[in-house]
Amino acid sequence: MARSPRLDYYTLEGFDPSEAPAQVKGLAVLRRGWSAFWTGLLDNMAGTREPVIKLCRDRQGHSYYLIYDPTTEQRMTCDSRAEVLAWIEQRYRV
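Now predict its structure.
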């Protein structure tokens, strides 16, 4: 039976295959952090004026939306997606 290329990589690099997921997970977290940093930096330098909408959960597990509007520098929360859509429609109404 042929060996997995992934297993050969871990063997060549000196990793124990049973420990690889933890090492890979750490690299993924680091990569996501750098990606978020650069995206934020570029958005800030480019002057992006798009609202930032994040889906969050409170300690009881209830979900809500956190909205930041860089144009007005205001933050607000909405309990439902319908409220977020209504806010977006109202914001872009001409």
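Residues 37 and 79 are 28 Å apart (CA to CA).
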